[in-house]
Amino acid sequence: MSELLAPAGNIEALDAAIGEGADAVYLGLKSFNARLRSSNFAWNQFEATVNSLHRQGKKIYVTVNTVSQEEETERLYRFLSYLNKIGPDGLIVQDYGVLRMCREFFPELELHGSTQINVESADGVNLLQKAGLSRVVVARELGLEEIRQIKQNTTCEIEMFVHGALCVSESGLCLFSSFLGGKSANRGMCTQACRRFYTAETASGQKQGYYFSPGDLQLIEKIPDLMDMGVESFKIEGRMKSAEYVGAVTAAYRYLMDHYKEDRKGSIAAAKRMLSTDFARSKTTYWYNFKTNEEGVEKAGSAILNPNQAGGTGIYLGRISKIRSASEQAKEKARLAAGPDAAFEDYQIVMAQLSGGNYDPDPGDSIRLHKKDDSGRVSHKIRTLETDEDGSRWIDIPKGFSREDEVYLLQTKSMSKRYPRVLPQDIGRFRSQPGDEILPVLDLTPVEKNELSYFPEGTYVQVSTVSDMFQVQTLSPVRVILELNFETQTDLLTRKTVLPFSKKQIIISLTPYVPQSCAGELSSTLEQLVSDGYKTFVVNNLAEIQMLKGKGVNLIAGPYLYTFNRWAVSWLENQDIGAFITPIENNRENILNTFERNVRSRLMVTVYAYPALFRIRFKLPQSYDFMYFWDKKEMPFKVLSNQDGTIVMPENPFSIADKTAQLQKDGFRRILIDFSRTKVTRAECKMVQNSIIKSQPIPETGRFNWKDGFYNPEKMEAYRAAAERQAAERQQSDFAGRSASNRKNFRGNNRKGLQKGGSDRRRPRR
Q1: What residues form DSSP beta bridges with 283?
Q2: Is the pLDDT of residue 760 over 60?
Q3: What are the C-alpha distances in Å from 645 to residues 116, 293, 322, 648, 680?
């Protein structure tokens, strides 16, 4: 029997999920999870939840599905040690460093590969199973037949999303939010930039729309087929959704799973009626109705994208037109409604007035607030309503929102249910927290003599076409990296094209996305390339490691095999990988912390590139007749769409070419100039070369996260607190200075007065 797995972004959603029959829930704690903007669970709440669910025979999985920087690994180790003591039923993980740590120190912890780990084929699943994972959450961009083929070619458990929001990007490969401000999707801080309103330059002029905001997944009709093929777990997305949403969706899938064998048609119809209160975006089955990969690449865009559909979810209630402070009575209502276990921030409210919608929300309704600059979205249940004498209605909203922010209705009070509480009333006895254990030192493998003969010092250049290989000869690269795509594959396999470099000088770079329907062809292509004499490959997907094992070739971990800490590097070393290209969203400080000087010869650093901000499995619809678009800040982007799918990239490149001398001084003597997905010109080659030689920045380029690193809410809070302390100290100092001055003046005035008075008193009477 398949498991029904529901989200528990907060305690109310936990109650709803279990109350409606979920077999298991997944949740995050306050760090190391990919939904840092949801409420998440405090330590005592989590421990009590594990205890209560195990008493009921239910399971609980914890999301540890973000990548960690080197400086965070000791805190990660303590967190894993804590989880090992509490005993959840599994951890959902992305970072290879977590895999390495758990196998070394906590082998009893059950590990599940997150969809963020980017696995969409049996080869990738099997590699993770050999590495100790018992379950893999496959990518959401797969079809029914692909799931069937994976199940037929692995004994590992398969978990898959069946309902909820989709990412337009291929799973785990989105850099868009990180590029725009360091808020990395790989670190749980995605700002959903894909769902924003963009302006495009089309043949008929400028057009605007939500071009990359996909509909929501709904596979209710496919559940019987998926159950019959033996999928172990069906996952509902929604750790940031309301309890009402979680309850309604869980109930619908529970009903169908329990009744489809007795009445397939009737139970599907009943379940769909139960889902009719899901006020989210339009629904799609995504890839599940396409018979071939080619059909999906051509048609999926029209099935999933609607540029006229707002990026928000729910029924539009309007914009915030006015805000005022909440009365003491309203604050008390919010506090009581939040419950005794709520965090302080859960009942900090202000009152707002809405305008522009066609429905007046009431207490008990669940809403979703969207900041006008797309910097944040929060779900909220209305607790109180105030009405002015003129009939104006004021509802409570969380602090942090302002005028012109949009509000959507998710659920009405009439849809709400009261569920038995999972947590006991008194959770005071649950007091475990992460300790202060010291993470043992991990040394990466020293480089042996001649080990990296395939990875010499110097400049590497990557291109996407054979013609561009001729253009980059002027840069005299020690190696040229050629991207394997639908064009170059033909050139390489037919052997009709004369190449300007020898096979020893050519490294083949492989795609970061390997869906099951394409895995067989890729495996055959790699076998032919190896037999033709190509010996070095940049691998960007775990499936490619599996395909090339035992082939006697050299493997370089590409930027999509994320190595943000030495534990992740060590795990990849154990997969017979000896060299690494740093992730392009990485930063200098973290690279220096991860790779000590004696192993820096294993690393290549990208100094110039047009990074793929997000990658889409399908072509864009024919109506998307544009190549360039820009956001409301007028930042330009470029979109490339062909039979390999779609890639969005910045119009202006990333460059730290002027930092090359510093990199070499730091011990990084292999640099990469990446011209992938762009037409190479001699002028651009010369510009990059001059930047390297003269250590001069290239105009109109960006640094990505190189200098400032990832956005860190804890550091930002520390900066704010420090700034507030400094301001308070300055104010106190100013006050002390003014007080001293006043006291001095007071004493001076008194002295003058006394002297004058004394003089008067000493004056003889007349």
Answers
A1: 216
A2: no
A3: 19, 11, 45, 10, 21
Distance CA 289, CA 285 (A): 7
Kindly report the pTM of this predicted structure.
0.86
Per-residue pLDDT tens over the stretch 587-604: 999 999 999 999 999 999
Residue from 306, 414, 436, 429 nearest 365 by CA:
414
pLDDT of residue 758: 37
Contact 329, 383 (CB under 8 A): no
Burial environment of residue 711 by CB neighbours within 10 A (0 to 12, 13 to 18, 19 or more): middle
Helix or strand (DSSP H, E) at 468: helix 466-471
Q: Give the three-state DSSP class for 381.
A: strand
| pLDDT (tens digit per residue) in 327-365 | 888 888 888 877 766 666 667 889 999 999 888 999 988
CA-to-CA separations, 94 to 139, 422, 423, 575, 671, in angstroms, rounded: 12, 28, 29, 16, 27
Give dist(CA 18, CA 53) in Å, integer.
9
Query: Facing residues of 160 across strands?
Result: 234
Rounded mean pLDDT of 121-131? Answer: 98
CA distances from 180 to 189, 247, 707 (A): 12, 35, 14
d(CA 174, CA 190): 9
- CA-CA distance, 763 to 752, in Å (whole number)? 16
Rounded to 5 degrees, what angle do the CA atoms 249, 253, 257 make?
A: 170
- In the chain, the percentage of residues whose pLDDT exceeds 90 is 77
The span from the CA of 377 to the CA of 139, in Å, is 24
Tell me how far apart the alpha carbons of residues 13 and 238 are, in angstroms, rounded to a whole number. Answer: 10
Q: HSE (CB half, 13 Å, CA atoms) of 387?
A: 7
The crossing angle, in degrees rounded to 10, of helices 486-494 and 516-531 is 30
- For residue 764, the model assigns a pLDDT of 35
* Nearest-angstrom CA–CA distance, 600 and 215: 44
Alpha carbons 543 and 128: distance in angstroms, whole number = 9
How far from chain centre, in Å, is Cα 167?
Answer: 10
* Side chain identity at residue 318, one-letter code: G
Closest CA to 10 of 44, 53, 39, 32: 39
CA distance 187 to 36: 8
Determine the Cα–Cα distance for residues 607 and 346; give it in Å rounded to an integer.
Answer: 44
Tell me the DSSP string of 216-254. Answer: EEE-GGGHHHHHHTT--EEEE--TTS-HHHHHHHHHHHH
